C-alpha cells in the first residue's frame, strides 16, 4: 500500500463533487487520519507549481508533435489525395479547435485558488505559448497547402474576379 | 504534381484528348455540303447529252456545262444531282460532245491552250494535253472565238481548232491507252488577219472556215484538209465576194442521213443568206445564194449542224428554221421549213435552242415571254421530222415567274415523240438569277440555285431563330368552362409530347442533338433546345438573297432584289429633266454586305440589312439597303403595306452615288433599338439605316479607319472621327484625324477587323471569358485586348536599288490602332511571285497569319501564331481592354510568336466562337486541297518551349515546340467531301457553350458543320445509359422500401432485450 495519498479532490478547486458526502462505508476522515502520520501531503502551493509545469508542457505539446507530423506530411506526398488531404485538414483544423477550446484545455492546470479557472487571465503566458505553438502547426499546414498549390497566392488565382469595362472609344 | 517522368511523353498523352473532328456516324447529320457548279458560261450552256450504251438499246442522259466558277460538270437530268465535276483552273472556252458517244472534250485557257477529254458519264479524265503556252494564246472577245472541237462521226477521233489557226487531230492510242496526236496543221497566215472559227469533219476532208480581215469588211476564209494526212487540199483565205457579217454568221451544215463526204457552208452576208456546197475539194467555191435581198439578220446555231438544222432571224425579228435536205441527184438543198408564229412581234422576247431525241432526230424549241419581262414563259417545240413540214407543240409555263426568277438566259431541250403528232419535251433553263431549272411540260422538276456559288465575303451571316413562347392563358375574365376547354385544347398534343419525351429519354442525349436534322422534316420556325438550328442569310451577286437552314442546307426562302427606278420606264434624264423616252434602263444589284440589324430575342425574329450597290446599265451607281425579316424573308422596312411585301424586294435608297465606306453601328447592349448601317458618301457625309440619334450621340467616341485612295493607289490609312452637327452640312460628317503613311511603293490590300466583330451587333460573340493566361507558377499574363485594333495588310514593292538589281515585293502586316493609328505589331513577309496572299485571323489577343515563305532554306507554307500580352511580363496589368487608346499604357505590350510549317496552303481561316468564350478557340482552316480542318489552340501556343518543358511549363500544358504541324486526318471536319474554293469561314455560337457552328463558303461550295474544341462537356456522352441510371435508382428505392420495415421491427425487438 502506498504511503502517500493523493487528494485529487484538492486539485479540483471548483469541482461540483467536492461537497458530495462519501458513499456508505467510506469515511474520508478515517482514511486520511490513519495515514496521517506517515504521509507527506503536498501543499496546494506545490500542487500549483506542479500544475504550472504541466501547463507549460501542455502548451509546448503541439510543437513537440510537429516532427512527427512533418514526417507524415512528407510521406503523404504532394498530390491531392485522400491521405494527404486528411493530414492537411487535420493540420489546418486542429490549431483552431485547440485555440477555441484553450480555456477548457488549461482548466485542469489552473491554480487551486483561482476564482474562475476558465478565464483567459489564468495561466496567460502558457496560453500565449500554446497559441503560438498552434499557429506554428497551422503554418506548417499552410506551407503544405502552398506546396500542393492549394493556396491562392498567385495573381492567376484571382484572375476569375478580374472584370473589365468597355473602352471609351468605339471603333466602327 | 504532374509526374515529371511523363513530361517527354506529354504530346502523346495529350493526343487522345484532342477532340476528333468528326466521326463517320455523324457525317451528314451534323454537317452538310452543297456541291455547286456555278453559273454556266454564256458560250457553254447546260446541254443535254445522250449516250447510247453498249447494249445498243438503252441510253443514258446527262446535262453537261462549263461554268464561270471554272467547273466542268455533268448533272443527272432526273433529279439535278451532280454526277461529276472537275475544277479547271482556266476558263473553259469550248466544249465538244461526241454524237452519241461518251466523250466530252473541253478546251480551256486563252485560245484553247489545254485540251481535256473526259468520259461524259463518269467524268474520268482520258486525256489532258497542253496545246500551246497560255501566253501565246489569242485573247478574243468572247473567248470562245477561234476555238472549236469536232468529232469524226462514227469514230473516237477528236479534232480541235485552237488559237483560230491550228487544227490538231487526236486519235486513240491503242498501245498506251489514252490519246495521241495524229497530226497538226497550222495556217500559214500568221498575221492574225485570218481567224478560223468553224470546223466540219468528214471521213475524207476537214473543212475549216473563218474570217479574214480586209479593208472594208470581213471575207470568208475556207481551207480544206485531207482528214487522214492533213494535207492541204485547197486553201482559200479569200473566197471571192463572200463577206460574212461576223463570226456568228457562218455555219456548217451536214445533211442528215447522208454518210457521204458532203455538207454545206452557210453564211450571212448583209441580209442575204448564201451557201457553199462542200463536195470533196471545194474546187469551185461558187457561192449559191439561197435567199436574196432583205432576208435575214442573224443566224442562230442550235447545235444541230450534224442534223442539218439551223435557225435564223428574219428582218422584223421572225424566227425561222432552215434545214438541209439530202438529195440523191443534186447537191443537198437548204430550205426554210418553219416560221414561228408571233415571233416577229415586238411585244415578245424569244430565245431558240435545239435538241435531239433518242433516235437523234432534231427538235427546235422557242422559249418566249412578254417584252416587259412579265407574265409566264411560253414554249414552242418543233419536230421537223414529223409530218410534212414538221409538227409544233406549245406549252405555257405558268409556274415560271419572270419577275421572281429572272429572264431566261440559256435554254436546252431534250425531247421525245411517244406517238406521232405529240411531242414530250423537257427543258433546262438558266435564269438571270443564276438558277438552273429543269421543266417538264409546265412543271418544274428540280432547281439548282447556282447563284449560291457567287457569294462575296461579308455577304453571309448566321442568325438565331426566335424562342417559342407558350400560349399565355388565365387572362382576366376567363371562366371555369373556358379555362377547361383551353386546357383540353392544349392537352390534345400531350400524347405526342409524352411519346417524344420517352423517345428522347431512351436516346442518348448527344443523339438528340444529332437528330435535329433527320427528324425535322418541316422547317422549324423556332429555336431548338441547343440553338444549333439557325438561319444562314446569303446575298448573291445575281441579285438574290437566300435563307438556308443551318442544319440541312435546304433553302428556306429566296427573294430577289428589286431594281427600283431602274426597272421602271424612265422619264427623266441624268440631270433630272423630263426626257420622256419611257425606256427601261435596267441594271443590277450587287450586295456589298449583310448585317444583322436585330438579333432574335424572345419571340421576335432577327432582322438583317443588305447593303448593296445598284448599278444602272447607263453607269450610274446608287447605294441602297434592303431590310428583311430573317425568318420569312418579308420586307421588314417599317410602313410597307402587306401587298407590297411580295415580288421583288424594294430598296431604301441611301445615297445617289457610291458609298465610300459601309460600317455597322452596333445596337446598344441593353435596349431594343436595332443596330444601324452607316454609309459615308464621297463627301464623307454619313447616312444611317435605320436612322437613329445614336450616331450623333456617340460621335465623340466613334472612330473608324479608311483607306486613302489617291489616283487609284491605296496609299495610306486615314483615321476618322465624326462631327455630329457640322456648320455647312445637314448630317454628321466624318473628318480625318490621323494618317498612317505607308512606305514608297506600298499599298493597302485589306483592313481586317477582329473575327468576332464582322457583321455582328454589339454584345454578340465578343465575350472574353478570361482576361489572362495563368502560367505554371500561377503568375498571370494579362491579355492585351484592344477592340479598336485592326489588321492592315499591304503589298510593298521595293524598287531596284544599287544592292539589289531586281525589285522585290514583300507583304506587310500591321496591327494598327484604328482609333489612334499606333502600330502595335508589324512584320514583312515574302510574297508569292509578287502577289500577296496573306490570310489572317485575329481574335482577342491572338493573331494568326498564314503565308507562303519563299526563302530558299525554309520554303513552304507557314503559319505564325502571335499572342499579345499587357505590359512587359507576367503580372504586369495595364487594363488594356478598357483604357483609352490615347493612354500610353495601351501601347505597352509583350508579344510571343512562333512559326509553324503546314503541309497545305490555307484559303481561309477563322476561330471557333462560342457563347461565353469559355471553350478553347480552335483555328479553323479551309485548305487548298479542298478540306475544312481544325488546328487545336494547344498546338498553336506561341509559348511552347523549344527544349523539354520544365515542370512549370508542363503544368501549364505547354508541349515542346515542333516546327511542323503535321497533316492529321482526324482534324478534318469535312469528312470525305471535297469542299472546293472556299474564301470565307464563318463561325457562330450556339446555346451550348461547347459547340460552335462553322460555315464555309466561297466561289463554289457551301459547307456547314459543328465544332466542339473543348469536347462536348455540356452534353452527356452517347455511352451514358439513362435507363441504367433510372433502374439503379429504382432498385435502390425498392431496397429501401423493403428493408425499412425490417429494420424497424428488428430495432423494436432489440429494445425488449436491452
TrEMBL record, chain A:
The keyword Cell division does not apply. The chain crosses the membrane at residues 71-93. It is found in: Endoplasmic reticulum membrane. Residues 1-44 are annotated as: Disordered. It is a multi-pass membrane protein. One of its GO terms (cellular component) is endoplasmic reticulum membrane. PANTHER family: ER MEMBRANE PROTEIN COMPLEX SUBUNIT 4. Belongs to the EMC4 family. This is ER membrane protein complex subunit 4. The lineage of its organism: Eukaryota, Fungi, Dikarya, Basidiomycota, Agaricomycotina.
From TrEMBL, chain B:
SUPFAM superfamilies: Quinoprotein alcohol dehydrogenase-like. Keywords: Endoplasmic reticulum, Glycoprotein, Membrane, Signal, Transmembrane, Transmembrane helix. Residues 1-21 form the signal peptide. Residues 844-1056 form the ER membrane protein complex subunit 1 C-terminal domain. It is a single-pass type I membrane protein. Residues 22-450 form the EMC1 first beta-propeller domain. GO terms for cellular component: EMC complex. This is ER membrane protein complex subunit 1. It comes from Pterulicium gracile. The lineage of its organism: Eukaryota, Fungi, Dikarya, Basidiomycota, Agaricomycotina.
